[in-house]
Amino acid sequence: MAFFRGRRAEVPKVDLEHLPRHVAIIMDGNGRWAKRRGLPRRAGHAAGAETFRTIATFAKELGLEYLTVYAFSTENWKRPKDEVDAIMRLLEKYLHEAIETMARDKVKMAFFGDLSPLAANLRALCRETEEISKGYDGCQVNICLNYGGRDELVRAAKAFALDCVEGRADPCHLTEDAFGGYLYSAGVPDPDLVIRPSGEIRTSNFLVWQSAYAEFYFTDVLWPDFSKEDLLRALAAYQNRSRRYGGV
Ligand code: IPE
Ligand code: IPE
Ligand code: MG
Questions:
Q1: Residue identifier of the C-alpha nearest atom 11 of ligand 2
Q2: Rounded distance, CA 188 to CA 209, Å?
Q3: Against a cut of 0.90, is the pTM above it?
């Protein structure tokens, strides 16, 4: 059996043959990380973007099939414009880099969320990365951008209703699987493990439908401080859970 042992002794063993297929992360705590250092919030977002690079690369090395990250929620528009602008600039920078390295890493990227309110150049970058991804079959990274779980469900309900009105679907035959096909995550298996750093014990409108049977892992570590060892801790905790799905 293949095991991964982290550098620090206290990091538990992770069985690489029984990894969750899909890990989702609420990348939270950037603002508090910056505040503790007397830095502006945007410095926290920049540090968080670095952590995302490290964790996404590590997830691929470990052999995870899907990594979904919450980058910007439908509620995050409430923040001051300069903070929102700083986050969007970081995303743009990341996507430029990703386009450079995707061919080497064979990482697929997809976006969950309504991209229409984003600046045209950022939207074009998202489309370009998705287009390039079509040629790859490696680890798939889903970036939730202007994403809200309830918004996703309402959009899916609308799209399904329209299909019914136009005769493409029949409400009497709607199944959970078929409804899942109307979500941003269509074709992606549900997350097995949802990780939230930063000490908050809530899901903040993340993957409302998809995480119905996910295992949750909460940690006080702020996202910019989240390390490979922290991911291993979460994976080890997951491997100690008993997933019963209502059975015995
Ligand atoms: C997460 O960090 C990043 C986004 C929500 C875009 P926060 O900015 O929410 O950090 P805290 O929660 O204020 O520390
Ligand atoms: C959730 O974090 C959204 C992202 C990490 C993108 P928030 O910081 O927005 O969530 P709340 O406000 O603590 O619920
Ligand atoms: Mg937060």
A1: 204
A2: 13
A3: yes
H-only helix segments in 6-119: 30-36, 41-62, 81-105
Q: Which long-range contacts (CB under 8 A, 24 or more apart) does 155-162 make?
A: 155/114, 155/182, 156/182, 156/183, 157/182
Which residue is associated with the tokens 């979460």?
234
User: Which is the closest atom of ligand 1 to the Cα of 35?
Assistant: 14
- The class (CATH top level) of 17-148+190-239 is alpha beta
Please choose from 25, 26, 27, 28 the residue to mutate so as to test ligand 1's pocket, defined by most ligand atoms within 8 A of CB: 28
Q: Is 27 in the pocket of ligand 1 (CB under 6 A)?
A: yes
Considering only CA atoms, which of 154, 147, 141 is closest in space to residue 205?
Answer: 147
pLDDT tens per residue across span 177-188? 999 999 999 999
Amino acid present at 5: R
Q: Smallest Cα–Cα separation from 125: which of 87, 97, 84?
A: 97
DSSP class per residue in 165-229: HTTS--GGG--HHHHHTTSTTTTSPPPSEEEE-SS--S-TTSSTTTTTT-EEEE-SS-GGG--HH
Identify the bridge partners of residue 22 per DSSP, sorted by sequence position. 66
Domain ranges for the chain: 17-148+190-239
Q: Which ligand is nearest to the CA of 220?
A: 1
What is the distance in angstroms between the CA of the first residue and the CA of the last residue of the chain?
27
Q: Find the 233 Cα to ligand 1 centroid distance in Å.
A: 22
pLDDT digits over 95-130, tens only?
999 999 888 888 999 999 999 999 999 999 999 999
Residue 220 is among the residues annotated as catalytic for this protein: no
